[in-house]
Amino acid sequence: MTTIAPDARMAGVARTYPPRAAVVSWIFFDWAAQPYFTLITTFVFAPYFATAIAPNPAAGQSLWGFAMAAAGLAIALLSPVLGAIADASGRRKPWIAGFGTVLVLASCTLWIGKPGNHAVIPLVLTAVALASVGAEFATLFNNAMMPTLVPPERIGRLSGTGWATGYIGGIVSLIIVLGLLAANPETGRTLLGVTPLFGLDPLTRQGDRAAGPLTALWFIIFVTPMFLFTPDYPAKRPLGEALREGLSELKQSINSLPRQKSLAAFLLANMIYTDGLVSLFAFGGIYAAGTFGWHTIQIGTFGIMLAIAGALGAWFGGKLDDRLGPKRVIAGSLLVLLLSVAAILLVDKDSVLFVKTAPPQAGAALFSSTAERAYLVLGCLIGAAGGPLQAASRTLLIHLAPKDRIAQYFGLFALTGKVTSFIGPLLIGLVTALTASQKAGMAVLVVFFVAGLGLLMRVRD
Questions:
Q1: CA gap 187, 259 in Å, rounded
Q2: Across the strands, what pairs with 180?
Q3: Which residue from 52, 171, 219, 422 puts its CA 20 to 30 A from 212's CA?
């Protein structure tokens, strides 16, 4: 397989980049991994867990928050170390394969989560946490391959296209689940009005539970082109030697951060606003389920609309990234997120911005109430801002980080994206548990976006 010399740019040698097939295959990693975030942590399995497996929605939101917090802490502690080792050893694909296997096995385990079976809650939450670890670490090493694929002036477009492709993959997987697998327990019909494929039982919510195995199969199929066609870095040294050298270089990089003020400010800003964004996506479906009484079909339809907005936002944001710079794209996205979250807190099932409205009626058409429609609009704004925020963030890191330690700095990037990622879910879980109010729990997210935007202003791109 063709490999790429990572030091060519530093040596002043003209770089050569792999063919289009290699780039497209790399982009399809986002398509392969996205169903975990779309189906499991956001729109299908998370709300199903909160409303059908857990004792009640508030308890479900709290338990889910604790599980995601544990996963975030593990990712935070291990990301920089693994990134440093990968830089020293040279290879990326073996790490992607290993953590992809964790994602696949843990996702399949979610099938056991039957409605009302409280005994499986610890195992289900453990599987969700492990799947999160697998997905995040595989993504870390996939991100580290970016600088070898396209010239620097096209990194923003590559990142935005990857995120947009991931959103589209999430949309397609969500349509499959809602239209063909998950049925309303009362009618026995899916969103497309058909009985579930493969004889899946609506009463035991097998369609919702199938989101786990589908995520696993989807990843295996669509990550394969990356392994076949995208070149990897060459192997540098054995794992033991790479471990020693990688940890030594990581120590040097951390010690040098105070002298790299823009990079340090960006990593700190990323730590805060990513915590808010991940928490917002993780609890958006659960919040809607508790506020409006939405079930899988309503939440999934909302998810499709959100993902379409995210795909368009990420694609357009990638173009703006190359033209205006990633910092401006991040700042604009944070402003949209901040205003949207503040507005969502003023939407209830029978009111919008303190104005009383008719509540949703049983048996009515999807999203027929004013409050539901307002939530849809605000959710689409969040989706449209979330895509370019994440895509531009990894572009800005590539602008700021030393090129010969890119995986290590993506490890620090993941660290700052995860080291406090347990705080958002933990605060939401604690505030929700103490107040028995989902709205009070979600209100803490405003602080994250305000603080992240303030720190971003100190970054010089």
A1: 63
A2: none
A3: 422
Tokens of 191: 């969103």
Alpha carbons 202 and 181: distance in angstroms, whole number: 9
Pairwise CA distance, residues 388 & 393, whole Å: 8
Q: Which two tokens stand for residue 313?
A: 């936002």
Ramachandran category for residue 231: left, alpha or beta (phi over 0 → left; psi -120 to 50 → alpha): beta
422 is written with which tokens?
Answer: 């347990």
Which tens digit of pLDDT belongs to each residue from 367-426? Answer: 767 788 888 888 889 888 988 898 888 888 888 877 667 766 777 776 676 666 667 777
Whole-number percent of the chain with pLDDT over 70: 85
Quick one: 210 exposed, middle or buried, by C-beta within 10 A (0-12, 13-18, 19+)?
buried
Say if CB 3 and CB 231 are below 8 A apart.
yes
Q: What is the DSSP string of 292-320?
A: H---HHHHHHHHHHHHHHHHHHHHHHHHH
What pLDDT sits at residue 419? Answer: 64
- Read off the tokens for 305: 């609309």
The tens digit of pLDDT for each residue in 76-93 reads 778 777 777 776 666 789
Q: pTM of the prediction?
A: 0.73
Residue of 402, 101, 405, 82 lying closest to 239 (CA atoms): 82
Nearest Cα residue to 226 out of 18, 9, 15? 18
Place of tokens 């720190």: 455
Q: Which residues pair with 348 in a beta bridge?
A: 351
Judge residue 217's burial from the number of C-beta atoms within 10 Å of its C-beta, 0-12 exposed, 13-18 middle, 19 or more buried. middle
- Helix (H) / strand (E) element for 211: namely helix 211-229
Amino acid making up residue 284: G
Region of 14 (left: φ > 0; alpha: ψ -120 to 50; beta: rest) is beta
| Tokens read off for 50 | 């909160």
DSSP secondary structure of 401-428? S-GGGHHHHHHHHHHHHHTTTTHHHHHH
